[in-house]
Amino acid sequence: MALTLAKRSKPKKGVASLVNSRLPGVIKDVQGSRVCGNSGRLHEFMAAEHSRLDDLLVRCACGAGQFDVATYEEFRGLLLRHISIEEKILLPAAQRRRSGTPLALALRLRLDHGVLAALMMLPPVASTFYAVRAVLDAHNRLEEAADGVYEQCEDLLGLEAEDLLARCRATPRVSVSPWIDSPKVLAAAKRVLMRASYDDSLLNPREEAQQ
To answer: What residue ranges do the domains of the chain occupy?
Structure first.
C-alpha cells in the first residue's frame, strides 16, 4: 500500500505520544509582557513556505512503495534554505531588537532545525518522512500560532519587517550534500532526535501501510 502523508495534519496517533512537550503558550518579551499582533507580510511569507514544504513532502510518496527522489531533493533544498532564513535573518534580528536577549523559543527552534538538518541526510524512505512530519507538525505550530514566533518577530521589528522580508525573499538556495543510506548516518540522526527530546523510534523501519 502507498505511503500517505496528510497536508498540515496534526501528529497522527502514536506520533503525538512520541513528541515531548514543546513548551507552547504565550510568548513574552524580555520584560515579561505579552507580545501580541496580527500576522503581516513576513508571517504570510514564512507560513507560505511551510505550506509549500508540506505539499512537497506529500508528493515525495508516489505510491506502491516508490518515492519521488527528484521531489525529495527539491524538498531538501527548500527546507534547508528556510532554516537558513530563520537562523541567519529572523532569530538574530529579533535578538538584536531585544537588546541581545534571544526569543524565549529560540533554543527550541534551533534544536528542531538541527534535527531537520540531520534527517535531510537520510534517504527518502517511509521512516524519514514519518520523522520529518512529526518534527514539522510540532515546530510549525510554535512559529505560526497566534502570538507565535513569526508574530513576535513582526511586533519587535515594526517597519523594519519589510526590509527583513526582502532579505528573506532574496536568500539563495543553500548547498545540499547528498543523502547517505548508512547505518552510521541513521544512528547519528537518532542521537540528534533524542537530544532534542524526540523519541528515536520515529526513525524505526516501518511499512508504508502504517503511515
So the answer is: 38-210
